[in-house]
Amino acid sequence: MMRPRALALVGSLLSLCPFASGQITPFLVEDSGGPQHYPKVNGSIVVWQEYLDGHNAVGCKDLGTGEAFYIDAPPIDRLEPDTNGSLVVWRDKRTGDFDIYAQDVQSGQQWTVVDAPFNQTQPAISQDFIVWSDLRNSTDLDIYALDLRTGLEFPVCKAFGAQQAPAVSGNIIVWEDKGRAKTYLNPLASDIYGYDVTTGKEFLIATDSKGIRQAKPAISGNIVVWIDGHNGGDIRGYDLGSATAFPIHVESPDDYAGQNDPDIDGRYVVWEDGRNLVDLDIWGYDLLTGQEFPIFRGPGNQGNPRISGNLVVWESHPPGEVERIMGAYIPEPASAGLLGLGAALLAGRRGGR
Fold this sequence. Notes:
- By secondary structure, the protein is mostly beta strands.
- The chain has one domain: Neuraminidase (6 Propeller).
- Helix content is 6%, strand content 49%.
- It has 2 helices and 28 strands.
- It has helices spanning 4-14, 336-346, and strands at 27-30, 36-42, 45-52, 55-62, 68-70, 78-83, 87-92, 99-104, 110-114, 120-125, 129-134, 142-147, 152-157, 163-169, 172-177, 191-196, 201-206, 214-220, 223-228, 234-239, 244-249, 259-265, 268-273, 281-286, 291-296, 301-308, 311-317, 324-329.
């Protein structure tokens, strides 16, 4: 085990990373004319929802090759895309209600993930699973999943109320549960739950004794992050390995600036931040150093950030212009040896999607 003094030294050295001095350069991902929303990223593949020719399309770009294209589908709304780097998933209603579809990025082959009664929405994808919120029982929203390795579909959570905003990493699926915490006095209350595919067991991750909403979870490896509804919106985390909750960004009770839409991959957490009280910016947090840092501060509102490795993408709305997708790389530590030491310290918390 590394001694506390050595850990402190590593933290001090890592605090000298380039992003500590604000050296993050944003770039335009794609500007094809239509308003662009809800980006997702995995590796070099970025996907987004774009309004074109009277309907919403799914755009896709490989930042490695510069190739951009739209998902080939009937001229109807295609919404809520996500990607694992090789597949793109989304929802559309070509059969009359919303179902989940997928397309292979390389071959262009498209297939139906689920076509069930009523609506299936909010798809999310990892290397092994596609998860979504499902209304097939016509009264409550449940969480379902498809195992990409076997092609088998299975229910994750069938409970009273609305189960929504699922996310997945490895064998762990997390979601926002709006049924079990909801009361007459706290109609907006919600909790964060998880499910281990390996054991088939469900577990509670976050709740609040006063019924304050816990929402929009994201997961990478053993670390879950979400919005805590206190103070207009705080960002909190939970280490599944040690069963330990920890703060990421917590406002003072007198400051209701609000943070929203967190995401995580490996050592970095990103979110939409309202602390300047005028525009929304993008901020990040390094789990290894405990350092918080701005990713983009500028005119207009920035939102819906997503991260893969050290690549961040987000939705930008400059004043007087249509929404577009922007990106930026968080500079890594200059020393390869230092980076290796940091990776060793983060072992057990890091994990791929």
